[in-house]
Amino acid sequence: MTQLPRMFGKYELQKFLGGGMSQVYKATDSVLGRTVAVKILTEEGCRDDDAKKRFLLEAQMSGNFIHDNIIRIHDYGELEGRPYIVMEFLTGTDLRGAIDKNQLGDLQNRLHIALQAARALGYVHTRNIIHRDIKPENLHIDENGRVRLMDFGIAKAQNFNLTREGFAIGTPYYMAPEQVMGKPVTPAADVYAFGIVLYEMLTGLKPVTGETVESLFYLILHQQLNMEPLQQSGAPAELIGLVQRCASKKPEERPASFEAVIAELEAILAHIQGAPKSAPAQPPTQPPDLSPDPVSTKKLPLLPIAAAVVAVAIGILFLVKFLGNQDQPVAKKGADPTPTPQQQGPPPRQQDQYGEMILIPESTFVSGREDTVKKLPNYYIDKTEVSVAMWNKFAQAMGRTAKDQPAEFPVTDVAFSEAVEYCTWAGKRLPTAEEWEKAARGKDGRLYPWGNEPDGSKANVKGNPSLKPDSLQPVESMPEGATPEGVLHLAGNAWEWVEDPRKPSPEIVKMFAPLQATIDEAWTTMRGGGADFGIRGASAYEFSTVPAKLKTPWLGFRCVK
């Protein structure tokens, strides 16, 4: 690049941050006024067809990720013949720097970092993507201890092979034996690399070293890890065993998924802290029942989703003025919830300073209009939508303007990114689409929280004869519409954000023209219907695809953990 600063499209490149085949700059988006990082493929990289394809694939894949622990992609494209990616600008340090400077803190803090990394990788794997280059340099930690997974430059979809057969690619120290041998790479390779990184986090040492690549590869293939430094570090036996299994030479001997890794890390952390911190931390008291549960065969007529989006889009014409700058600073994580007493299995409810949470037990359940049978582990979900009172605690802590609305009502006019910030601050996260749907339908597959009948008197929806039309209700109201577990307003009241990245159809994009929404920006879904919509739109499997920047008086959220 020429002398800085210089303009690259609408981005003013201000400082060179580093790079090799691609170069990364600190920059300012001259339109939005926010600081970003711009990654530009070099001229040499543009001449390498494989490098260019990988760069574009990275942009496409990572641009679709919406997760607290994965770097956000704001934009990507090609300019002046050079492909580029625009990312959020991160402050803090990468994990390599934190390890080298001994800045990881105590064992609990190291486990919190490892858990965030595992959750990011678990999310990536649910999208059928294999990262293939897990290393400390690709994990960033900001000043608030929040981890971001970065650099998907050599990631690949499980059904997409960009490299020649037998060609190993990755950072040698963290490559799994099957990668070294050029065999087909599966998600187990990421589990292996995570185990090596976890070893290094706990000991400060690389478990595998060699003076040449050849000697390093020989050790990866043939030498077992030396567990003595781990034992000397004071790590508990369960954690040492997890590292050893993650780094097994044979893929089939490693944990089957990052869900299993996360469950073990949470259990270890809960044991260290002396009380369960979340539902998955508790091992099941008996083997899980893998047989499908009986489900209802009742169906509703197909809801015209396009009509739902039209209804929302009409409202947007009057709501554009509510759109705010979505590039807010990362919120500081709130205090840990109050521990629950030790007991057999996770407690059915948890109470913390951010409200009551209800256990959704591990079981099979049916998902979607086709009643696909799925299974999720234990998790907790907020009993209610996040209220204005709860939101204003967050606003006060962050120095933001409080909402001037009734404290007991659901907070609305909140964009997806703001909902993510609140949940992170409270030590929680947004529910996935499957988690939300399972809480609403239960394992018996009901169509509404109360059963299969579209009873408009049990939800705050348009047409409820006992409620004021088009008005929200307090988050603790209407127990008659609760799920059997006691979760309120999963049908009606405020629509709810869920973490469900999607690409909209061109027709849906056109309906959001007042927001200047584009098909390439972040889109997700909202669920549950609202006070502005009829009971049919509140069935548990229906959803509407909307831009993540959307704000309306009818759209709120709740958290899970």
Low-confidence stretches: 156-170, 275-343
Q: What is the number of independent domains?
A: 3
Top CATH class of the largest domain: Alpha Beta
What spatial form do the alpha-carbon principal axes imply?
Answer: globular
The biggest beta sheet is recorded as: 6 strands, antiparallel
Q: What is the CA-based Rg, rounded?
A: 24 Å
Distance N terminus to C terminus?
Answer: 45 Å
Could you say what the CATH topology of the largest domain is called?
A: paralog of FGE (formylglycine-generating enzyme)
CATH architecture of the largest domain: Alpha-Beta Complex
Number of helices: 15
Mean pLDDT: 82
Query: Count the strands?
Result: 20
CATH homologous superfamily identity of the largest domain: paralog of FGE (formylglycine-generating enzyme)
Helical content (DSSP H or I, runs of 4+): 25-40%
Q: Which structural class matches the secondary elements? A: alpha+beta
Strand order of the largest sheet: 1-2-3-4-6-5
Q: What percent of residues are in strands?
A: 15-25%
